[in-house]
Design goal:
- There is one protein chain.
- It is built from 16 helices and 18 strands.
- By secondary structure, it is α+β, with helices and mostly antiparallel strands.
- The strands form four sheets. It has an eight-stranded mixed sheet with strand order 6-10-11-18-17-16-15-14, with helices on both faces. Strands 1-2-3-5-4 form a five-stranded mixed β-barrel.
- Strand 8 and strand 9 form a beta hairpin.
- Helix 7 crosses helix 9, helix 7 crosses helix 16 and helix 14 runs antiparallel to helix 15.
Length: 488
């Protein structure tokens, strides 16, 4: 069978005819319910001799005259069943043989036993056909390997490929553990709007949509940061959100336009508190999900029992051959790189502002070399307008990022709660936007107004769920950790 799972007219007609046979016998082909004693996973935990009623999708059928063996599947795995003509009666046995295919759903009544080969099996005393599949599954022994089909028909990928199924199940378990960890540390999960008048909170180009009833354009959020911090200002002590974010930027193995973030904010914390909390969280998730802090990601061994630290500004100064905090003109900074012959003018032409140029150099020269878990800290203030200025040097911010295998796993900082500095930072961003920087922060005057009413000290962090899952479960792309990835 080809990867696109095309089926012949004859095959479709044959399955439709079998459905009609089932209708003629049972009255209904696609049944409304089945009372089960447990899932396949729960059934596998029972002792021999236990009476069970178990439904599932048929994954294999092997007929040996008057005896047959098959397998049924649900999301947790498979279990073998056996049927005999003597036990079921000739009519029931033959109807099963002539009308049930791989892919159909059945419910079976029977008793657990182990075969002579030692495999747990349900000895069927009665069966019910629950649903007829009109299209076949991928060939059992070839699975589903075509990448396009795997992503477009994810349900088939999950059924056919245990690795895909385990990664997705692990990702959802990770989200549950994550929520439990946050609640256990006195964080409250709240909700913030996806449709926003101004999409701010990160340097990214937003998606725009039109609200018909209000006859105005809205933007899909690029981050829940601003409303979460306003919630802190309202008196919530610690808040978090498992948030769908949208950024209208390039798509590659580690970036998607629609993705999931967990962001949290704590009153009275600084970025050092959040470095410790973030590390405790990451270690908890990895240990709980993998049973060890030494894992492998795409052939690289990672050790999450400890981390390195790297001063971002000091490293960039070393690369630039000057202090990058001294620049206030993008063209002068571009000339510094050109003089060093580090990049060509064509390389730098797309980047209009100082933050864009610095970030470009970082992504090309520093990030790829950070393999083991590393916290970067001490960033230029112009990189993140929402972060708090360092008390000793206002040109720097108290910010950090955690990286592994060159991938940015999270970003956090002591939050800027000075409304005068915040307004000035937004005004600077407005200049960058006017100069053509598509990914500058969008100024948010309502946020400044809320801050003018008074915010406590705050520290916050945002972690990409898809990216962290790809590392924990050793998946090559973010799409491999998403149940329904976006396709063209």
């Amino acid at each position: 069978m080809s990867e696109n799972l095309a089926i012949s007219t004859n095959e479709l007609e044959a399955r439709v005819q079998k459905a009609e046979n089932i209708r003629a016998r049972d009255g209904v082909v696609w049944k409304d319910r089945f009372e089960r004693t447990g899932t396949i996973l729960e059934t596998r935990a029972l002792a021999d001799g236990a009476k069970v009623r178990v439904p599932g999708r048929v994954m294999a059928l092997r007929w040996l005259g008057k005896l047959m063996f098959g397998r049924i599947y649900d999301i947790d795995g498979e279990i073998q069943f056996s049927m005999s003509q003597e036990e079921l009666g000739e009519e029931q046995y033959k109807f099963m043989k002539t009308n049930v295919d791989v892919g159909d759903f059945i419910g079976i009544d029977g008793e657990l036993y182990h075969t002579t080969a030692g495999e747990l099996t349900i000895k069927v005393s009665k069966y019910e056909i629950l649903a007829k599949a009109l299209r076949p599954l991928p060939e059992k022994f070839h699975g589903l390997t075509d990448t396009e089909t795997r992503y477009r028909q994810r349900y088939l990928d999950i059924i056919a490929n245990k690795e895909s199924r385990d990664a997705l199940l692990g990702r959802f378990q990770m989200t549950r553990l994550w929520r439990e960890f946050m609640w256990n540390h006195n964080f409250m999960e709240i909700e913030t709007p996806i449709l926003q008048n101004v999409a701010s909170g990160a340097a990214a180009k937003p998606f725009t949509t039109h609200h018909n009833a209000l006859d105005t354009d809205f933007q899909l959020r690029i981050s829940p940061e601003i409303p979460l911090k306003i919630a802190i200002g309202a008196g919530f002590d610690r808040v978090f959100e498992v948030a769908k974010d949208f950024r209208n930027e390039g798509m590659d193995a580690m970036h998607l336009q629609e993705f999931t973030m967990v962001e949290w904010y704590a009153a009275y914390w600084d970025f050092n508190d959040n470095i410790k909390f973030t590390w405790d969280l990451v270690q908890h998730l990895i240990q709980s999900l993998r049973g060890t802090l030494q894992i492998e990601y795409q052939g690289t061994k990672l050790d999450f029992s400890s981390y390195d630290k790297l001063d971002y500004t000091a490293k960039m100064n070393e690369l630039f051959g000057c202090n990058i905090l001294d620049f206030d003109d993008a063209e002068k900074l571009r000339k510094q790189l050109l003089d060093q012959k580090m990049f060509s003018r064509d390389d730098l032409e797309p980047y209009k502002s100082i933050p864009e140029i610095v970030d470009f150099v970082y992504k090309k020269k520093i990030r790829p070399g950070l393999i083991q878990p590393t916290f970067l800290y001490n960033y230029p203030a112009y990189m993140v307008p929402l972060a708090r200025r360092n008390d000793d040097d206002e040109r720097r911010i108290d910010m950090f990022q955690l990286l592994a295998c060159g991938a940015e796993m999270c970003k956090g900082y002591s939050e800027l709660v000075n409304p005068i500095q915040q307004l000035a930072a937004f005004e600077e961003q407005a200049k960058d936007i006017a100069a053509g920087a598509e990914e500058a922060f969008n100024p948010d005057n309502d946020f400044v107004r809320a801050m003018e009413h008074g915010f406590p000290p705050i520290s916050g962090v945002g972690v990409g769920v898809d990216r962290l899952a790809s590392i924990i479960f050793d998946q090559p792309t973010l799409r491999d950790t998403i149940l329904f990835p976006m396709m063209k």
